[in-house]
Design goal:
Blueprint lengths: L6 E6 L3 H12 L3 E7 L3 H11 L2 E3 L11 E4 L6 H9 L4 E5 L6 H14 L3 E4 L6 H7 L7 E7 L11 H16 L4 E9 L8 E8 L4 E7 L6 E8 L2 E6 L4 E8 L6 E7 L6 H15 L7 H21 L5
Parallel strand pairs: 1-2, 1-4, 2-3, 4-5, 5-6, 7-10
Antiparallel strand pairs: 7-11, 8-9, 9-10, 11-12, 12-13, 13-14
Helix pairs in contact: 1-2, 1-7, 3-4, 4-8, 6-8
Length: 317
């Protein structure tokens, strides 16, 4: 990337993930980390010190000082904060989900188009090196299964497991499909919180493909896996370890022979690559890999999954 100048960027919200945004920006030569802000001023000062930047009392202090921002605040504030920056032509990387509901998502997309600002949504796994390589090998998926399991994070969460965890794989599945969702079945239950902590969703596409997605934030161990079955091959992605395996079928009697190959992957830092890609888009005013429309599509399916799960589990809120 050949910058004439560094992109001035700020981070709004420096909880667990926002802290990582600040740390990565501070290490990207093409970025000038102007500062960070958080509702917890002590936290903002702490992270600013670690990232070698300045803590600001309010995100409004960034106006006139930044070209772009990462918004890593609770979902309920995404639209309000995002609209203020987009309306001023400031590029926005909005952490997933894009917004709390589709009306808010539409308002962000409309404002970005009006001001010609970049709106990128933080679906991190699109930048995973193993998935990027796997996507090149996907032609016509017939069945997809995804498992995204984690132990309980022991920190407050403002959304259920669908928007917190499953939406990553919803976005991944939608990015692979050239067909619309025809139907959704889902079930889930709260375990630790008063929201869904485990959910299983089955997406049926008009072209006949089915995707089964399992998400949990109360599992014993962390798992991030994706299997894509298509004619003659099975593509397996391990997001956590950035590994890719291809199983192919050779003709034979009475059954074919299955051989597995591990594809060599140059492992990378997915968040670093996501932020760097955002900076490139900000600099060139280019369309991001994960657009506002992509974020909206994932949110729409996530909302349908929740509705199906809540309908099946009467009494859940």
């Amino acid at each position: 990337m050949n910058f004439r100048k560094r992109i001035r960027v700020g981070v709004i919200g420096v909880g667990y993930l926002g802290k990582l945004h600040a740390e990565k920006y501070s290490k990207i030569p093409e970025a000038e980390l102007v500062g960070v802000t958080d509702i917890d001023s002590g936290r903002a000062k702490e992270i600013a010190s670690l990232a070698g930047t300045k803590a600001y009392p309010s995100y409004k202090d960034f106006f006139g000082k930044v070209d772009a921002v990462s918004i890593v605040t609770p979902t309920e504030s995404h639209a309000k904060v995002g609209l203020e920056f987009l309306s001023k032509g400031i590029d926005v990387l909005m952490e997933k989900p894009i917004a709390a509901n589709l009306l808010e998502a539409d308002s962000l997309i409309k404002e970005a188009a009006k001001s010609k600002a970049v709106l990128q949504v933080g679906h991190l796994e699109r930048f995973n090196a193993a998935f990027a390589e796997a996507k090149k090998r996907v032609s016509s998926p017939a069945y997809i299964e995804a498992h995204r399991l984690s132990p309980f994070p022991n920190r407050s969460t403002d959304v259920d497991v669908i928007l917190d965890v499953m939406i990553h794989d919803i976005d991944i599945v939608l990015s692979l499909m050239k067909s619309e969702v025809a139907g959704i079945e889902a079930s889930g239950t709260p375990v630790v919180t008063d929201k869904l902590d485990i959910c299983n969703a089955r997406l049926k596409f008009k072209n006949g493909c089915t995707a089964n997605i399992i998400a949990s934030r109360v599992a014993r161990e962390k798992v991030r896996r994706l299997n894509i079955a298509q004619s003659g091959s099975l593509i397996s992605v391990d997001f956590l370890n950035q590994q890719l395996f291809i199983s192919k079928v050779s003709p034979g009697r009475p059954f074919g022979t299955i051989t597995e190959e591990e594809v060599k992957i140059t492992k990378g830092d997915s968040l670093f690559e996501e932020l760097r890609s955002f900076l490139i888009c900000s600099k060139e005013k280019a369309a991001p890999i994960v657009s506002g429309h992509d974020g909206r599509a994932a949110l729409e399916v996530a909302e349908r999954v929740r509705e199906a799960a809540l309908l099946k589990g009467a009494g859940l809120s």
